[in-house]
Amino acid sequence: MPEYVRVTLCGEIATVTFARPKAYNAFDLSSISQVAEHLINLAVDDTIRVVIITGEGKAFCAGGDLRWAADWPQGPAAAFHNLAARYHQAVLEIRRMPKPVIAAINGVAAGGGFSLALACDFRIMERSSVLRQAYTSSGLSVDGGGTFALPRLVGLARAMEICAFDKPISAQKAVEWGLATKVVEDGQSLQEAEKMAEELSKISLESFRWAKQLMADSFGNSLETQLELERVALRTCAASPEGQEGIQAFLDKRKPVFNKW
Length: 261
Known about the structure:
Helices cover about 50% and strands about 15% of the residues. The protein is built from eleven helices and ten strands. Helix 9 packs antiparallel against helix 10.
């Protein structure tokens, strides 16, 4: 099986790179299966505290490979049915991962690449990079949790505008709309993501895990349910080594050290 995905490790930071630059990092069944497998392994790797996702060449990820889907023996509908199973697994691993995930968007993030980027916790975009949902321009429906993430990030009206008109979203507009965390100069997205990852590697992962899970679940919970989950999370964090370190550091009037567990 060709290696369309590359994983590099640097201390407590793992970088997952789409490596099909000639296809603008569009993914077929093989490459997205590799992404999902890597994410599954990284999620439970206690030596890794932060994950970065990026693309090789001029694109972050152009989404599902339409040429591959068109050549599928049973037709494109069956191709997308199979592709979505693996792609959704990758998206869920990002959403469920108990550690920060940063998208370093070095070029176009379109279709499945757009939704994959939205699944990440943070998005750093290069100035000339663009986001584009792309599905509707090809007569397809938005996939990969895009219909879940978009209205939560930008509101229902703007999400519908993005889906209906499918206009490219510049990096600056993405920041203004809450779709991106930061804009950097071209060629600097990975470097900035690594800088952010270094900072995030020092935070309490126990606190981050609960914050990520609680906020994701909050849209489907009542206030009473959410409050009870917050109480459970607070109690659990307070009993954890990182919680105890944080409390003791406050009492000692020093900066806590969380990345020793």
